[in-house]
Amino acid sequence: CVVCRLFERNAELLSLFDKFRELKTPDEQAESLELAEHATVVMSSIDEGIRAMDNVDFFFDLLYQIGGSHVRIPGFKKEYFW
User: Fold this and answer.
1) Are 23 and 16 contacting, i.e. CB atoms less than 8 angstroms apart?
2) Are 34 and 19 spatial neighbours (Cβ–Cβ below 8 Å)?
3) Do the Cβ atoms of 35 and 71 come closer than 8 Å?
């Protein structure tokens, strides 16, 4: 799972999400339905962004929307998106 690998490489990210904080092992993460649902949302957002590359205004609106929803997470850093 892509999101599982993200958490493996950036363990500090896991602690930012209340509903994922208890998923300590890769097996727990892989078996979590909530994490799978979030991964689907993440991948759908990436797909939508890729499809919108020819519409710069929509693309940047999408980025600002996604970033705006994450900036409200205490401890979240913009660098996590890069």
Assistant:
1) no
2) yes
3) no
Q: What is the pLDDT of residues 17-66, one digit of tens each?
A: 888 888 888 889 889 999 999 889 988 988 998 998 899 999 899 888 98
Whether the predicted model's global pTM rises above the 0.85 cut: no
Provide the pLDDT for residue 76.
86
Q: What is the DSSP letter of 79?
A: G
Distance of alpha carbon 8 from alpha carbon 53, whole angstroms: 29
The C-alpha torsion from 32 through 36 and 42 to 46, rounded to 10°, is 140
